[in-house]
Amino acid sequence: MLNQKLRISLALAAGALGMPVLLAGCNIGPRYQPPAPPAITAPNYKESTINFHNAEGWKVASPQAAMIRGNWWEIFHEPELNALEEQLNINNQTIKVSFQNYMEARALIAEARAQYWPTITTSPGYNRAQTSGNQNVSSAATTGRAYSLWDIPVDVSWSPDFWDKIRNEVRTEQYSAQVSAADLEVEKLTEQASLAEYYFEIRGQDMLRQILNQTVAADQQALDADQGAYEAGTGDYISVIQARATLQNAQSTAINVGLLRAQYEHAIAMLLGRVATDFTIPAKPMIYTAPPIPTGVPSELLERRPDIAAAERTLAAANATIGIGYGAFFPQATISLSGGTESALFKHIADWNSRVWSVGPSISQVIFNGWLYRAQLHQYVAIYNADLATYRQTVLTAFQQVEDALAATRIYSQQIIKQKQAVASDRQSLKLEMARYETGVDPYIDVTLAQTALLNDQETLNALQVDEMVSAVELVQALGGGWNRAELPTPRQVAAKTAKADYVLQH
User: In this structure, is the dihedral angle defined by the CA atoms of residues 218, 219, 220 and 224, taken in order, positive or negative?
Assistant: First the structure.
C-alpha cells in the first residue's frame, strides 16, 4: 500500500492534468461523413431486358423476384457445380490468405487498444561492488569496502489519451479490419466466379469434342464411300483426296480440343486446393441456357458489392488517420510511477524500510520540427481525397460491369437464336449438295465446302452458348453475388476478442 505522501503526490499529478481532462470530451479531427452516392434516377438498368419487351432471347427475372442470397451459384441448377463450389469455400488457398489477412487486421486493433493501458515493467537485479580505498581519505572507515544490493523495482508509465490520438488509431484499425473483411468477401466471390466460368468452359469443350467426333465419323464415312466409288470405277481420285483432307483436318481440330479442356481442369484443381495430377472432371457434353437473374434496382447495387463497402471503409479509416495527425500538434502527458524495494541483504528485501518510490507527471511538446506535423497532416488529407476518388471510381466501375454483363448475356442469347438458324441452314445445304454430288451435278469440293461451313457454324454456336453462360456468371458477380452490406461486421464486432484457435500456428 502506498503511504500518505505517495497518495498526495498522485493527487497533485492528477490536479496538474485536470485541465486537459476537461477538454478530452471532444474528438480532435474531422467528423466522418459517408460519401454521397451518385445520383441514380433510372428505375432499371439500361441494358436490362425490361427495356426490351420485344427482344428475343434471355431476359432478367421479374422485378418482384427475390434477390440472390447466399450460395448464388445454385441459380444455375447444376449439382456438380454446387459440389465443387462447396469444396472451394473450404480448401481454396487464396481465400485462406485473405482470411488470415483479416485476422491480422483484427490483431492490429488489439495492439492499438493496448495503448489505453499503463505499461508496467520490472527488472529485478543483484549487484556486488567495492568502492575505491582512495575515494575519500577523510572517511577511511567507509572506503575500500565491498557491498551487495538486491533490487526489485516496479515501473508504471501511463499516457492518457487527452487528444484522441489513441482513440483515432483504434478507429483506423477497426475500419481497416472492416476493409479486410470486405476484401475477404471480394476474394471469395472472385474465386467462386472463376470456378463457375471454368466449369462451363469445360462443358463447352466437351460439347465441342462431341461435335468434332460426330464430324470425324461423318467424314470417315464420306471417305470410305469415295474410296469405294473410286475402286469401282464410278468415282475420281481427286474426290478421295479431298475427302481424306477434310477428315484429317477434322481429326486435327478434335485433338486440339483436349488442350483447353486440360488447362481449365487444372485451373479448377488449383482453385479447390488440390494437386492437378490427382484431379479429374469426367467428360459430360452439356448445353446450358442462362437462367433469369434477378438484378434488383440500380440503387441497391451500393449495398450488394463488397468492393464498394471496402472502398467506403477505407475512406473512413483515412478520415480517422487525419484525426491522428491533428492530435500530434498537442502536448503529450505522461504519468510515471516507480517503486519497489532495495536491500543489501536478501532477507530484508521485503521489509517496510526497504521500500523506495517516486512519482511524477510530465508533459512533452514539440516546439519546432521543421513543420513535420503540418506536412504529415497534408499527406493524410491527400490520402483521404485520393480514397474518395477511388470510392467514386469503384461505384462507377460497378455500374459499368453490371451493364456490360447485362448487354453481353442478352446479346449472346439473341445471337444464339440466329446461329441456330444458320446451323439448320448449313445442314440443309449439305444435304442438298451431297445429292447434287451423288448425281454428278457438282464436284466433291462443293461438298467439302458445305461440310466446313456446317462445322464452323456449329463451333461458333457452341462458343456463343459458353459465352452466354460466362456472361451470366459475370453478371451475378457484378451484382455482388449473394452478399449484402448488412453482413459486414461492425467496428465493435471486428474488435471483439477472438478465439485462441484462430491464431494457432498451422502446419
Answer: positive
| Residue partners of 118: CB distance under 8 A and separation at least 6 | 156, 157, 158, 335
CA distance 373 to 449: 77
Number of other CB atoms surrounding residue 61 within 10 Å:
16
CATH superfamily assigned to domain 27-116+164-329+373-503:
Outer membrane efflux proteins (OEP) (1.20.1600.10)
Tens of pLDDT along the chain (507 residues) come to 334 443 334 333 433 344 344 344 456 789 999 998 888 888 889 888 655 556 788 988 877 677 889 999 999 999 999 999 999 999 999 999 999 999 999 999 999 999 999 999 999 999 988 877 666 555 555 566 787 888 999 999 999 999 999 999 999 999 999 999 999 999 999 999 999 999 999 999 999 999 999 989 988 888 888 888 888 887 888 888 988 988 898 899 888 889 999 999 999 999 999 999 999 999 999 999 999 999 988 989 999 999 999 999 999 999 999 999 999 999 999 999 998 888 888 888 888 888 888 998 999 999 999 999 999 999 999 999 999 999 999 999 999 999 999 999 999 999 999 999 999 999 999 999 989 988 888 888 888 889 989 999 999 999 999 999 999 999 999 999 999 999 999 999 999 988 777 777 887
* Residues contacting residue 256 through CB under 8 Å, at least 6 positions apart: none
Radius of gyration of the chain (CA): 38
Phi, psi of 336 (to 5 degrees): -115, 140
For residue 433, CA distances in Å to 17, 76, 159, 402 come to: 101, 41, 93, 46
- Residue-range domain boundaries for the chain: 27-116+164-329+373-503
